[in-house]
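Hi R.,

Here's the chain you asked about this morning:
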Amino acid sequence: MSSVDRQQFKLNRSRKNLRRDVGRAIADYNMIEDGDLIMVCLSGGKDSYTMLDILLNLQRHAPIDFTIHAVNLDQKQPDFPAHVLPSYLASAGIDYKILEQDTYGIVTRKIPEGKTYCGLCSRLRRGILYNYADSIGANKIALGHHRDDIVETLFLNMFYGGKLKAMPPKLLSDDKRNVVIRPMAYCKEKEISLYSQLMNFPIIPCNLCGSQDNLQRQAIKSMLQKWNIDHPGRIESIFRSIANVALSQLADTARFPFSDLRVGSHASKHSALKHSAENDAGLSVLELV
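And the predicted structure, written out as tokens:
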């Protein structure tokens, strides 16, 4: 087998793996339905390029009809190569829009030197994208977060926020205007990185936050990577636990009626089961981090 054939074989296998995982996530959470207008958010990184490519691939073969509209937010970061995404999207014949908002100027003015920009930057970006989705009638917003992002967020919230929450694969926004989906919720970052390299996507690095050292997420990522080296399969196990929650085995009195539990009390048992079911149903609409 020639080197070209080997590369094509790797690409086909990687695409197959990603399509399988994306398709499974879409089916499990009913992410995409007939007639949907899906706004696919592109940052220019490996994750969003891969998400768009896999969704376009699925669109061509899916038994339902849905529309994809790609969107990038140009945040006016210094030296941002504004031509890269328009050139890529236009050459691929993809319907797209570049939004221009100087969030970089806002973030650098508001955040003291040495502090992390990510929180304010993400809130500003989210508001702009949500409003644009509403203006074009997009009923779904697709974000490129993957399995590793979700697990990292779980530990970020536990270690630094004192909360047991992550990123849900599907989310109804607080104002009820937007449904956010994460089609790559089951995909491994390692597989996405391989696919991105094989596809030779024109990657745009995020210099705004990537230039800051010792970010909390990077510390969590390093911890998880070490765990996975020492104990292969640990990240998969942690991710499975997010979808297999036993409220009665935790300690949140607002989500499980511990005070009502009595020996032999059928009413308390019924109340506990009802309360558990109600809160279990609500776990899929956790707030966006």
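The radius of gyration is 21 Å.

Let me know if you need anything else.
M.
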